[in-house]
């Protein structure tokens, strides 16, 4: 059977482009299919990228990529009720480990890098159906039919290739809803400084949290919450980000609104990552860490894309398309699966119904007691035990939870 390319990549977001760049650098004949008119048109992120994986892909990216601001300040805000709030802030000037990005700009730039290296990208090409045929994979698109022996599914959380072949189900119970606005506002910040605010407890009922990121001259304001908690939310899904922004008192012109599903499986619940002729990367593989401190999908998308491109080269050289486990073996040795595994205990903790509602309140009450002087005074530990007991949490449970954060 004749094939149209050594490798076809479905999806031109960060994972697909990283796989494509790596594969063309390895000398493979690759086609990438993207349904958007350009890369970045359909992609959503809060917008904080840890750049270690990007620097592996493009070593001088810090000088050339359209990065917004380096993150030099981290702020966590826990709202206990409308009277009490706990804030922790940490600053580290000149830090260059993570940057805010705007995907419409960033992905478009990465796609132009890929094209200049020889990657053939077919835009406005929607993959509609996928099936196996004569030892290869046939992809039906709105612009015709393509055949290949190897496909990298980089189509994001909906995972069109694996799903069409019956290897995935739609699993909204394992997804979060991400909603985000870009707000034009006056930022009184030096160019080489940026802030991430992570906010928990401001909107009652939802399981998840919110964020505010500083870009060059805009703010990214958004929330990531589990779908199953939406019926209990103070605001309907369509008004969630607006309600959040208004409560924070952020004003300015709304330049953009977007909503997108976020995979939230956790390491032990990851779905199938490879099959004969097939590899899944990025969100399509479920690679996302949301551990309460930060959301990370972009560095995992780039990292898994690079590994998929390298694995594709080996598989194609061997001419044995049953050997896609090579990809998994390489992933196991990489930061992608190692970091996902490390984050699992925090994933489990955040999934316990009481955690996000109870601990911020216990902490706030404890701090309120600390800063209140009357004739009655308890030791801190007695007060902590009392505040935990009020919420039905034993000391041993609290210690176990603290340990799982530290893991
Ligand atoms: C609100 C929100 C906030 C987030 N915040 C952060 C953050 O601060 N930091 C971070 O690291 N991560 C964050 N993430 C996660 C991050 O955005 C994702 O993990 C990352 O975008 C995954 O990249 P990807 O290339 O795998 O998938 P995607 O970016 O979803 O790309 C998939 C591509 O496939 C294309 N496609 C889909 N179906 C088809 C089809 N049938 N045919 C052809 N093309 C198709 C799409 O158009 C798209 O371009 C956030 C996500 C959301 C939604």
Secondary-structure blueprint:
Elements: E1 7-10, H1 14-25, E2 30-33, E3 48-50, H2 52-57, H3 61-64, E4 73-79, E5 85-91, E6 98-100, H4 103-116, E7 120-122, E8 127-133, E9 136-141, E10 144-148, E11 151-153, H5 160-164, E12 175-184, E13 195-200, E14 208-214, E15 218-226, H6 240-248, E16 253-263, E17 274-275, E18 278-280, H7 282-285, E19 289-290, E20 295-296, H8 298-318, H9 325-332, H10 335-342, H11 344-351, H12 355-370, H13 380-390, H14 395-406
Parallel strand pairs: 1-2, 1-11, 2-7, 4-13, 11-18
Antiparallel strand pairs: 3-6, 4-5, 8-9, 9-10, 12-15, 12-16, 13-14, 14-15, 17-18, 19-20
Describe the protein in words:
The chain is α/β, with parallel strands linked by helices and 407 residues long. It folds into three domains: 7-66 and 101-171 and 268-343, 3-Layer(bba) Sandwich (FAD/NAD(P)-binding domain); 73-99 and 173-263, D-Amino Acid Oxidase, Chain A, domain 2 (2-Layer Sandwich); 352-406, no CATH class. Helices cover 34% and strands 26% of the residues. The protein has 14 helices and 20 strands. It has helices spanning 14-25, 52-57, 61-64, 103-116, 160-164, 240-248, 282-285, 298-318, 325-332, 335-342, 344-351, 355-370, 380-390, 395-406; strands at residues 7-10, 30-33, 48-50, 73-79, 85-91, 98-100, 120-122, 127-133, 136-141, 144-148, 151-153, 175-184, 195-200, 208-214, 218-226, 253-263, 274-275, 278-280, 289-290, 295-296. The strands form five sheets. It has a seven-stranded mixed beta sheet with strand order 5-4-13-14-15-12-16. It has a six-stranded mixed beta sheet with strand order 7-2-1-11-18-17. Strands 8-9-10 form a three-stranded antiparallel beta sheet. Helix 1 (14-25) runs parallel beside helix 4. The longest helix is centred in the C-terminal third of the chain and has 21 residues, at 298-318. The model has no long low-confidence stretch (mean pLDDT 94). Flavin-adenine dinucleotide binds next to helix 1, strand 3, strand 12, strand 15 and strand 16. Flavin-adenine dinucleotide (FAD) is lined by residues 10-16, 33-36, 42-49, 126-127, 154-156, 158, 160, 178, 180, 222, 224, 260, 262, 282-284, 288, 295-299, 301. InterPro entries: FAD/NAD-bd_sf, FixC-like. Keywords: FAD, Flavoprotein, Oxidoreductase. Its cofactor is FAD. One of its GO terms (molecular function) is oxidoreductase activity. This is FAD-dependent oxidoreductase.
